[in-house]
Amino acid sequence: MHQQRATPNDRTTRQFVLPEGALALGAGLGTLRVPRAADVPALVAGTNDPEVRRWLPVPRPYTEAMALRWCTEEAERRRREGEGLHLAVTDEDDGLIGTVCLKHTNWRTAQTEVGYWLVPGARGRGLATRACRVLSQWALSATPIERVVLVAATGNTASQRVATQSGFTYEGTARSGGILFTGRTDLRVYSLLRADVPESAPGETTDNQ
Ligand SMILES: CC(C)(COP(=O)(O)OP(=O)(O)OC[C@H]1O[C@@H](n2cnc3c(N)ncnc32)[C@H](O)[C@@H]1OP(=O)(O)O)[C@@H](O)C(=O)NCCC(=O)NCCS
């Protein structure tokens, strides 16, 4: 049995509400927290990274003004309007080292989609897997969401590994399902269901993995 869902993310919820504004990534690691103005320089640098631009259709160039608007208005607007939840992935000193989000949320069908990127220096240590798993498991155990989708371009091996390492199941390929700057791409589609999530809710302790 899953733990009882905590308010305010009850059945009538149509927006995500984070407990105390953050989820713990695990012992000795940072958190997933709401973005803030101090994140702007790291957000600009990270979003302009060639690998991020290769696999995500982010604006080119991604400017300081765009980042400031994202941190101070846009992320919260999307949360408030129920579209999703856009968070900073932080290191142990609370600095932004990437982002992870829930987006394209459909509250009627109780589905959402997870997305992520990390700055180059933070890659290769399992952090994207942790961030993806913590946020997805939280959505499935503490909110009305029943299904989290993850899509990765067929060429994006790293992201596909994050999906399977996070416990997602491969479902198939959405032909020409995504747009990159190089053109349309097939997408590999993965999902995580509530039934896939272990009982203990993520983000409640500092060592939950
Ligand atoms: C995708 C991304 C977030 C992965 O971050 P990460 O922190 O390096 O991922 P993890 O350390 O959790 O690694 C997860 C798995 O991917 C593998 N992996 C990481 N980078 C890889 C690469 N370039 N090629 C192949 N496999 C890779 C890891 O070895 C690990 O697999 P393992 O557990 O079997 O060893 C990061 O590469 C990134 O920010 N890429 C650009 C943006 C992006 O593609 N976002 C996703 C869009 S769908």
Automatic annotation (TrEMBL):
Pfam families xrefs: Acetyltransf_3
InterPro entries referenced in this protein's UniProt entry, alphabetically: Acyl_CoA_acyltransferase, GNAT_dom, Ribosomal_N-acetyltransferase
Domain N-acetyltransferase: 30-196
SUPFAM superfamilies in the record: Acyl-CoA N-acyltransferases (Nat) (SSF55729)
Gene3D superfamilies found in the cross-reference section: 3.40.630.30
PANTHER family: ACETYLTRANSFERASE, RIBOSOMAL-PROTEIN-SERINE ACETYLTRANSFERASE
Entry protein name: GNAT family N-acetyltransferase
Originating species: Streptomyces tauricus
Taxon lineage: Bacteria, Bacillati, Actinomycetota, Actinomycetes, Kitasatosporales
